[in-house]
Amino acid sequence: MDFQLSDDQRALRAGIRELLAGRFDRDRMRAALDAGTDVDRGVWGELGAAGFFALRLPEAEGGVGLGLSESVLLFEEAGRVLLPGPLAATQLAAGAVKGAAEGGAVVAVLDEGRPVAHLGAADALVALVGGVVRVLEGAELRALVRGAARPVRSLDPLTPLHRVTAPAPAALGDPLSGAGADAVRFRREGALLAAAQQLGSAARTTEMAVQHARGREQFGSPIGSFQAVKHLCAQMLVRAELARTAVYAAAVTADPVEIAGAKLLADEAAVRNARDCLQVHGGMGFTWEADVHLHLKRAWLRAGQWFTAAEAEETLAADLC
Positive or negative CA dihedral for 6, 261, 157, 109? Predict the structure, then answer.
């Protein structure tokens, strides 16, 4: 059995990497950070035009007609560059929210009392309530924001959060019907896409650590020649590759238990790799100018979204019974 990426999948990954390199490189990421811009509408529109959000919609509905495996590749690339915004919610709701498939709408998600990310930039809110998916837009969304939302402190400067007081289900719009209407499936697939972003971040911090270890010298030698630094970098690579295997496998099977395991491994890889990358960078890793802290903060935040470690562990434990 061959689990290598196909030529089309490699081309898809290369295409989104090239797009992000041109539209959201480090300079633009830093500019967004300085400006406090969590969703760049220009980038969002270009992602929509490239098929990022419509990737899994059937061709008959104007989509690309691809699957979860291809979505994982795109989200991994987004995680590498720390692209902010509710990417998973927007893609998962692309068939239900007008304009979302084309990148003309930003969709946030309200899930089980967790803080809502990017609510201020959202054109629609998907609420996972009572096992069904409800969508709130327009005046109803604005009324909810005014009356039931308050900002809370976020670890990540590019991911603003709001705490929303849970209103009655009737105040969250009518339940959706058809594909994407199952809140359990919506949450599960959102967790896998978040895991793919964590994987991208873990891979990127590994590269950052290795690059720094090769270029930084102490006592006349690159620090990468020191055994302790070699071990840190090797451990980072192992974590990232283990997470990659789990995330890719879960994308193929869409099995709930495998998705829980993939989220658990990817969260660990993203957080621990960012910490080890900071360690390799030494004192400069703690500075605002270094990007290491941004990967760590995003990894911490994303680890609490969709599936927490405790929830993933409970899913895995239940499967053993």
Answer: positive
